[in-house]
Amino acid sequence: MTCRLARATLAAALLVAPGSNAWAGPPTEQLRARIDRVVKVLEEPALKKDAKTTERRVTLRGIANEIFDFTEISQRSLGRHWQTRTPPEREEFVTLFGELLERTYISKIESYSGERVVYAGEMVDGDQATVRTRIITKQGTEVPVDYRMFERDGRWRVFDVNIEGVSLVGNYRTQFNAIITRSSYQDLVTKLKAKQDEGKDTGRHRVESP
Predict the structure, then answer these.
(1) Tell me: the pLDDT tens digits for 186-205?
(2) Which of 20, 41, 77, 78 is the most buried (most CB within 10 A)?
(3) For residue 165, what are the contacts with CB-CB under 8 A and spacing of at least 6?
(4) Rounded to whole angstroms, what are the CA distances from 161 to 52, 158, 173?
């Protein structure tokens, strides 16, 4: 499993435009509404200008935080190692990993060029749901992408994305566990901080998982 797959999975979650849909309940409709906002930002002529880069990215970051629950994603990605972390360590990890995912999200969706999504239905089980979609590339290739979501106070948010059957969270969990087992949790944090500094220094928002 490579970091490239993780980046592609997250990108697939947002590189879409409105498409046809089967029956859809609140999880699908809430996801669709936010994705439509992403597309609107990307297609806004004024925001495409270089002078508007910061404004565009701040707006996209805000929508990303509405779509994804980065705390839940962080906890699931750290897996069993989450339980042994102190509250300050958990807070630091969520911040570092969340920023990595946000930078990945922004760098990838800015390459949007008219891809579209077909909403293929949803499965709801209590406060969790899976929204099934198929992304249609410009070449006509169909890529199945499932969004795993949970509901809290009437809001549905994504805690995992599966592309062609491969989990974003599972991919990161495997990598994080390998680093911690081979070295230490602190080594993982050091690597995440290095990625954070790299993103700030380059200004190009190019990131990879550790």
Answers:
(1) 999 999 999 887 766 555 43
(2) 77
(3) 144
(4) 30, 7, 13
Structure confidence by residue, pLDDT tens digits, 100-140: 888 887 877 777 777 787 888 999 999 999 999 888 888 88
| CA end-to-end distance (rounded Å), the chain | 13
Beta bridge partners of 124: 129
Q: Say which amino acid occupies 53.
A: T
Residue entry with tokens 């969340």: 98
The amino acid present at 114, given as its one-letter code, is G
Strand partners of residue 85 = none
In sequence order, what are the residues at sequence separation of 6 or more whose Cβ sits closer than 8 angstroms to the Cβ of residue 61?
A: 102, 105, 106
Report the distance separating Cα 98 and Cα 90, nearest Å. Answer: 12
